[in-house]
Amino acid sequence: MAQKMTTTKPDDDRAVPDFGKMYHVKGVISLPSYEIEEPFEAWYDFEENRSRIDYYNGTTRTFLIGNDLDYGAIYQIKPVLPPSVIKCFQLKGTKEEPIRPQSAMPDVQGFEFEKMEDCKGVQCEVWKTVTEAGHKKNTYRLWVTRPEGNYAPATPHRFEMEGFNTLLDSHNDKYSIEYSDFCTQSEPDVFTPPAGFTCEEFPDPPEERQILANPIQDYVSTNPVSHAHRMFGPFKEKFNRQYKSEEEHEKREINFVHTLRFVHSRNRVGLSFSLGINDRSDWSRAEKRKYC
């Protein structure tokens, strides 16, 4: 599917924000479609080719070690049923798709300065980019400050995506990340996965493993066709879905993406039960409430 990128014209000649090669930051991922607010804490070390992101106050911990094994590896430590059992899952990199450290902020190449705006009492630069693929048109905005000047690392405050479907002529997707406690230092020992675990592969289906292993990747990516969108094809095949029109297909796809995000987020909490994708995963929330 063809993809194109458009950007707004900058108002002045500002340097694109840079977050440095090492940092520690906290944040909250907000998913309005299901009233989800998921806290995380991230450590990033570009020079040593490693990163770590914890979700729900360390309930699920994800280590991305680019120098491990032949092409890097992701290790995820998380509770599984029964809730008292902690397991390690591993995803190995390949020559075609090596594991790289995962940033908690978007890659701002392609963003352009839009305006200055108040950010909870602080004047923030707002940077924007728009990507399109098929009927999907996503607008991404990043709010940052530069406390130490234009050539020092920027401090992230907020990242937001708003999706518009040109076929349905409606805004039908939105999420945001609020950042806090950003600093350009990180303790080396936080990148070492805990010892004593025998790691196993992520469960099937194989096409879901990347999004399970590296959840934040979809949220900070500016690709309008995310891993969550790519999961819609296997879902349709498994449940023999055939929609009456292209408009219905578009609506069902976004319902599915929202459901998948909700399922994965809830399963990172460490509840006494787990959620999964079923034959109602392309239903709207209103349809699900009627069924119940």
UniProtKB/TrEMBL annotation:
InterPro entries: Papain-like_cys_pep_sf, Prot_inhib_I29
Pfam families: Inhibitor_I29 (PF08246)
Gene3D superfamilies: 1.10.287.2250
Protein name (record): Uncharacterized protein isoform X2
Top-level taxon of origin: Eukaryota
Top-level taxonomy: Eukaryota, Metazoa, Chordata, Craniata, Vertebrata
Domain Cathepsin propeptide inhibitor: start-end pairs: 232-288
